[in-house]
Amino acid sequence: MDELLNRIAGDLVGRIDGPLKFRFLMQPIMAILFAIRDGRKDAQTGRTPYFWALITGQGQRGDLLRECWDAMKKVFIVALAMDVIYQVIVFRWVYPGEALLIAPLLAFVPYILFRGPVSRILRRKQASS
Q1: How many distinct structural domains can be found in the chain?
Q2: pTM: predicted TM-score of the whole model, two decimal places
Q3: Which domain holds residue 73?
């Protein structure tokens, strides 16, 4: 088991310096751009900031998660495909578990972390105007 965890950890760290490393910048930027777009919509409609609504259950969690998937599915699929391509180039093999770990980190995490703060900032800006 330790051998497996060491291989996975080494593989994940190796992705930062390996081929296709630009995706570690581009995919989170794309996710953040979608978060800004959706955070702006949230501020205009007066919705509870996304992550807070997701945690507290204000609104339907299923609807919120579906909305996130609809906004991010293309970014997620590209992140998944890029990691598979990376694995084929570097390892000459595909480890699906690793790809399913990296893709959400590059796509969903930045989206979820940025959408709420964008909404809050724009809402405060609107209130002060």
Answers
A1: 1
A2: 0.79
A3: 21-128
